[in-house]
Amino acid sequence: METTSPHWLEYFKAFLQPSITLLVGILAYYLGYRNWLRQKRKEITYGVEQARFQSKLEACKAVWSLLEYISEKEHPNTIFVARGDKENKFYVVRRKQAEDFLNALPEVFFRKGYGVLMPSEVQNRLFELRSIVYRFLEAAKRAGETGEEIRVKNEEIIPAISKEREWLIKKLREEIKTNPDV
Q1: How buried is residue 145: exposed, middle or buried, by Cβ count under 10 Å (0-12/13-18/19+)?
Q2: What is the pLDDT of residues 127-136, one digit of tens each?
Q3: Rounded to an integer, what distance in angstroms lies between the CA atom of residue 29 and that of residue 23?
Q4: Pairing of strands 149-151, 90-94
Q5: H-run or E-run covering 149
Q6: Which among 54, 42, 45 has a CA at the least distance from the CA of 175?
Q7: pTM of the predicted model, to two decimals?
Q8: Per-residue CA distances from 108 to 96, 104, 112, 162, 179 (Å)
Q9: With left for phi above 0 and alpha for psi between -120 and 50, is residue 151 left, alpha or beta?
Q10: Distance in angstroms (rounded) separating the CA atoms of residues 79 and 155
Q11: What is the DSSP string of 3-70?
Q12: Looking at the chain, which terminus has fewer C-beta neighbours within 10 angstroms, N or C?
């Protein structure tokens, strides 16, 4: 006696095989599409983070350029420079460089827009340095000093300025190191 499967089972198998293939195809397409969307979102996020880091890097470079005005080493843009010998050492503020610094700071922070990307503590310290330089110029103006160099009477301010500069250098380097993993 030969057993044969019922007729309806043959139809069911004939219908089921292409249906399963079609369902697997649809599922594979759906999962592939979801994966593609996820990748596109990651690419967009990556691009935005990369652009943000590049902007922050440019801002740090711009602020870094301001540090040349308060450098301890004398060069053409240094504001505070030492004069005299070791026994009779004194500091002066160079008027032109001080005025250049007062003009460069708002240029970097406001006109070029780099201040938006800087932490408030960096902004506060730079503007504190700006206030110190401005006070030197105003005091010289009130005293009637018209020379290119203004003698610093309170030399205790020089180590404080150096300390602020070192803090700013450290903070700017930290800002650059805290980039997203791009």
Answers
A1: middle
A2: 999 999 999 8
A3: 10
A4: antiparallel
A5: strand 149-151
A6: 54
A7: 0.73
A8: 18, 6, 5, 21, 21
A9: beta
A10: 14
A11: ----HHHHHHHHHHHHHHHHHHHHHHHHHHHHHHHHHHHHHHHHHHHHHHHHHHHHHHHHHHHHGGGG
A12: N
